[in-house]
Amino acid sequence: MLSDKEKKFIRYWNEQREGGKWSYIITYTIGGAVIAFFLPLTIFYILSMLQFFRLIQLPVWLLVVLAFITSFAASQYFWYRNEKRWRSLTRQ
Fold first, then answer.
1. One-character DSSP codes across 14-57
2. Nearest Cα to 29, choosing from 80, 81, 66, 72?
């Protein structure tokens, strides 16, 4: 017997699967990259404004590349993890 949480996940993941793997990965890569780019910038800005630390200045292009690589890897990981969970729940 599936719990309400598991049923909710199955419904959610069925909707995500309809859109396709690459649609999911592209959407979450872009969204994650935006967050991964602006979050450190905001933190660095606040810390530099308060002058608590002298921060190493990274080139902006490097931060953008790292944000996309990290987000792409995370979205791939979450896709496969959710697929594995979905398969195990739908086999019961």
1. HHHHHH-HHHHHHHHHHHHHHHHHHHHHHHHHHHHHHTS-PPP-
2. 72
Type and span of the H or E element at 85? helix 60-90
Mean pLDDT of 40-46: 75
- Judged against a pLDDT cut of 90, whether residue 80 lies above it is answered with yes
Task: Read off the amino acid at residue 76.
Answer: Q
This prediction's pTM: 0.72
Point out the least confidently predicted range of 4-8, 24-28, 53-57, 87-91. 53-57
